[in-house]
Amino acid sequence: MHNEDRAIEERPVFRERSMQKLRFKVYVPVFNEEKAIQPLAGQFDLLREALAGIGVVLEVRFVDDASTDGTAQELRKAGKGRPYWGVVRHPQNRGLKGVLETVLALESGSHPPKGHLGIGLLDGDNTHPPMTFFPMVLKLMQGFDVVVASRFQPGSFVEGLSFPRRAYSWMASWLYRCSWRIPNLRDYTCGFRAYRADLFWKASGFKFKSQSFASMAEFLRPFHRAGAIFGEVPFCLRYDLKKGRSKMKLLRTILESLRLLAGR
Predict the structure, then answer these.
(1) Residue 184 domain-assigned?
(2) Three-class SS of the chain
(3) Is residue 14 part of a domain?
(4) CATH code, domain carrying 165
(5) How confident is the model at residue 51 (pLDDT cuts 50, 70, 90)?
(6) CB neighbours (10 Å) of residue 252?
């Protein structure tokens, strides 16, 4: 029996509820991703239909980080006829850390609303297939607290990612696993995640030290300290579908990751 299976045996799970639907809300950071919005809209429609089949209601909120291209217009067009769709816009660009702070501000408190299953995060550049949320939601319903779409699970594959980015991902995984030792977790840097709502609420006072994409790894710490049970699902990272340039500053992310690891 795997460690995560033993942990789940000790946790309550969500029972089938015939009278009450569960809500799963996804936040999507976007900055100058106008070409990714329409493809994502179609994929979210499919995810919404699939989740409805297991009694889960999908909500999607795009966080537009002060885009300067046609992203805002594409979001408005895609939102027509999609009642589950919403947009939050930053007046100034704040980066990934700012997006995570916005999500915390909007979705924090002492107790989540009744029936709120979880909160999801994924990149808004069309490299993360939204349908991967389906097995992630199932894991939340089984009792997992944080579920990561992992590049290091059997069945995963990565398409179109440069060698330096691949090398960073592998090295970061090894360093974080050696230092933080979070059970059942191998992919510390992927931003494709699902968090159980009631545990997410307890992270409301968390303060980020990182300014770069290292903030995504940092956003595992409050949940680990709270005793969260982590799990992973395989997924296909389709970097070959990305239309614009990467927003990640690799050197800065590496330096901030090393500072995080040194400070533990």
Answers:
(1) yes
(2) CCHHHHHHHCCCCCCCCCCCCEEEEEEEEECCCHHHHHHHHHHHHHHHHHHHCCCEEEEEEEEECCCCCCHHHHHHHHHCCCCCEEEEECCCCCHHHHHHHHHHHHCCCCCCCCCEEEEEECCCCCCCCHHHHHHHHHHHHHCCCEEEEECCCCCCEEECCCHHHHHHHHHHHHHHHHHCCCCCCCCCCCCCEEEEHHHHHCCCCCCCCCCCCHHHHHCCHHHHHCCCCEEEEECEEEHHHCCCCCCCCHHHHHHHHHHHHHHC
(3) no
(4) 3.90.550.10
(5) very high
(6) 14
Please name the residues in contact with 216: beta carbons below 8 A apart, sequence gap of 6 or more: 96, 100, 189, 190, 191
Instruction: Give Cα 53 to chain centroid, integer Å.
Output: 22
105 CB-near residues (< 8 Å, 6+ apart):
none
What is the rounded distance in angstroms from the CA atom of residue 87 to the CA atom of residue 148? 24
8 located within any domain: no
The pLDDT of residue 107 = 84
Boundaries of domain holding 59: 21-263
Evaluate whether 32 touches 213 at the Cβ level (below 8 Å). Answer: no
Contact 217, 146 (CB under 8 A): no
Q: What is the pTM of this model?
A: 0.84
Q: Which residues, 6 or more positions from 69, have their beta carbon under 8 angstroms from its beta carbon? A: 32, 34
**Does a structural domain hold residue 115?**
yes
Rounded to an integer, the average pLDDT of 222-232 is 91
**Cβ atoms of 63 and 29 closer than 8 Å:** yes
pLDDT in the model for residue 83: 95
Tokens of 35: 């070409």
The letter for the amino acid at 216 is: M
